[in-house]
Each structure stands twice: as C-alpha cells, then as structure tokens.
C-alpha cells in the first residue's frame, strides 16, 4: 500500500494533524493530481478551530482542504481531453448531475452539492483525486500561487460580476481575502467609486492597494462620510456583502440608491435582523451567492488575469506544508491576505 502525507482532522477538537495516509487510487472518470500549492480558506480555519459549524458538518477523521493547483499524474478510465502533465485547478463543489438544475446547465445550484474537504476527502495532501468534470485546465503563464486561489477568486468573481459595474459606485463590506479580491475585480471591470468597510486596518490597507477609493474602519468612521468625500449624492449602485456581519449588511441597505443591487456572499448569523420595509420601499435587489458558476465564472477569472488583472498583492504568505501551523496562525491573526502551502 503506497502512503503519502496529508493534513487530517483526526480528532474532534482544535487543530490538524500531519499524517501518513493511503495514496488514493484513481477511479473511472477521475484524475490523480500531484499537489503543487494549496491555499488555506476561511472554511479550513473554521475546521481547524473546531467551531459549532464544523462539529455539525465535518466527518472525523478526514483530510481537509479544497483550494489547489497541481499536475495530473494519472488518468482514470473514460477521461478524455486531459493528459498527464496538465497543470490544473478544480471546482470544489461536486454536483449530482441529475437534478433539475444540473440538467439545465445550472450546476452551481445543484441541491445535492458535496464540498471537497468538507463533505468528502479534501486536497491538503501530496496527491488527490477529483472527477475530471471538475477539473479546470490552467493557463501555465499564470503564477501557480494565483492558480491555487482560483476557488476563492471564483467566489469574488461570481459575486462582483453579478451586476454591471461599469461607471457604478460600489460598496463592499468585509475585507477578508475574497472581499479584497472583489475590489480588484470591480476596479478592473470599470467601477467609478469603490468604498470598502471593515475594522481590520491591515486588510483595509490591502484593499486600498487593490484599487479601493476609500477604506472605512467602521469602528471610528462612517460610510456616509466617505460618500460625502467622494461627492456621491444618492447612494451606492451595487453592494457586495462579504462580511457576514449584520451591522455591515444593515449599513449597506441604508446606503443604497433606490433600485440598488446587492450580491450577498457573507453568511449572516442566526437571528440577523434587517429593515425589510427599506428593501421593499426602496426597490432593492438582493441575490444570494454560493460558490462559482460552472464554468463561466472560471472562464471570466482566467480571462481577467490574461487581460491585466493583478492579484499578486493578495498572496501575503507562503509556507512549506510541514509548517502548516504557521499558515493557520497567519490566517487567524487577521494580518494576512491569502496563505499558500507548498507541496513540492
């Protein structure tokens, strides 16, 4: 039995364990990928901390992780159009292929989605298998640390490009790495003013580097003041809610134009209250976002990078996988963008 190294949630408590596990065998319709780089997601941090959501969701023991770039080293029976040596990333949502939405080509809305590294074995390992239908063939001219973050970049892209941004005033609440990438996308897509909010000065400054006009620390400033400084009269045309914070969401609703459009990626806590009268009387649109459109979002991501979008500032830390604890510490500190683990 051939073994490999993997980061495993071995026990139902805080932490991860670097262990020897069985190297996966490629099955029909799958490819075997040798990992080059993986990135730590906020979801992985939840699993590391073993919070309430993780306790209710994650089977133990299990290899976690879902953001990666690697090289195909073996092709399973029935796989076409991929070859050994291809550099690939992959869609982390495994869909059923049979429900109404899957059959209609709307796989991102599959009711039976399984998450890699959440509901099934993940990719924080030397090797991993995924269905060939989930593989994204990468442009080798793009740096691998950027290719390794295509999954969260896809969340940012799906959210930001839900609405026309050309010439629009955009409010983005929550400057985690996905929110910061949304800043760069909105700038690349032609937004006029981009205002961002958070309480983390490190990440607010990173958002300014990525193209924000104003970064508002809501612990000591107001969104309304930023609007006045920018000469905005009526409110924001587009809101991108990335924080999962009820106060931030309510501030967004208060500062939208009538008919304004909101895309929500942030997951609100139980019992979050908003003023639904404002939503109704101001004619607001609210769209929930989950994952990426398969694979239109991926096409847009790669095309934006090929046409000049620069995401390099968002990758702030890289560690060898044996130093994964340092990577998680950097993420938990809040003084980081994306953290990448190197496997070769």
If you had to describe this structure to a student in words, what would you say it looks like?
This protein has helices at 42-49, 52-57, 100-103, 144-147, 150-160, 177-188, 201-209, 223-229, 246-254, 276-281, 296-306, 324-333; strands at residues 3-9, 17-22, 30-40, 62-63, 67-75, 87-90, 93-94, 114-115, 127-131, 135-137, 170-173, 194-198, 214-217, 236-241, 256-264, 285-288, 315-320, 338-342. α9 links the parallel β14 and β15 (256-264). Strands 3, 5, 6, 9, 10, 17 and 18 form a 7-stranded mixed β-sheet that branches. A 6-stranded parallel β-sheet has the order 13-12-11-14-15-16, sandwiched between helices. It is 28% helix and 27% strand. With 344 residues, the chain is of the alpha/beta class. The chain starts with a strand and ends with a strand.
Can you write the helix and strand succession as a string?
Answer: EEEHHEEEEHEEEHHEHEHEHEHEHEHEHE
Terminal Cα span = 22 Å
Poorly predicted parts: none
The helix fraction, in percent, is 25-40%
DSSP summary, beta strand count: 18
Biggest β-sheet strands, sense, barrel: 7 strands, mixed
Overall pLDDT confidence = 97
> Which class do the helix and strand fractions yield?
alpha/beta
The Cα radius of gyration reads 20 Å
Shape: globular
Proportion of beta-strand residues = 25-35%
How many helices in DSSP terms? 12
């Amino acid at each position: 039995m051939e073994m490999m190294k993997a980061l495993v949630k071995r026990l139902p408590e805080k932490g991860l364990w670097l262990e020897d596990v069985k190297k996966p065998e490629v099955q029909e319709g799958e490819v075997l990928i040798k990992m080059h780089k993986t990135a730590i997601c906020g979801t992985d941090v939840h699993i590391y901390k073993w919070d309430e959501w993780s306790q209710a969701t994650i089977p133990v023991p299990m290899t976690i992780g879902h953001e990666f770039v690697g090289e195909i080293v073996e092709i399973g029976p029935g796989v076409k159009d991929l070859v050994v040596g291809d550099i690939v990333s992959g869609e982390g949502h495994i869909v059923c292929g049979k429900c109404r939405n899957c059959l209609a080509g709307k796989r991102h809305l599959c009711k039976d989605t399984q998450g890699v590294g959440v509901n099934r074995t993940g990719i924080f390992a030397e090797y991993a298998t995924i269905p060939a239908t989930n593989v994204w063939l990468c442009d080798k001219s793009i740096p691998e640390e950027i290719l390794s973050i295509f999954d969260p970049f896809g969340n940012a892209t799906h959210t930001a490009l839900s609405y026309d941004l050309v010439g629009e005033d955009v409010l983005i609440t929550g400057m985690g790495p996905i929110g910061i990438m949304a800043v760069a996308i909105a700038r690349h897509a032609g937004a006029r003013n981009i205002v961002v909010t958070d309480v983390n000065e490190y990440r607010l400054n990173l958002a300014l580097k990525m193209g924000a006009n104003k970064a508002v620390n809501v612990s000591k400033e107001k969104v309304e003041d930023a609007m006045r400084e920018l000469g905005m009269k009526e409110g924001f045309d587009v809101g991108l809610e990335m924080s999962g914070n009820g106060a931030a969401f309510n501030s967004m609703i208060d500062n939208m134009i009538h008919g304004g459009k909101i895309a929500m990626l942030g997951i609100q806590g139980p019992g979050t209250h908003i003023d639904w009268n404002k939503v109704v009387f101001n004619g607001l649109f609210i769209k929930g976002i989950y994952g990426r459109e398969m694979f239109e979002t991926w096409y847009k991501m790669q095309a934006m990078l090929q046409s000049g979008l620069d995401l390099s500032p968002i990758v702030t830390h890289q560690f060898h996988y044996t130093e994964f604890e340092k990577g998680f510490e950097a993420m938990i500190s809040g003084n980081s963008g994306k953290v990448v683990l190197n496997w070769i």
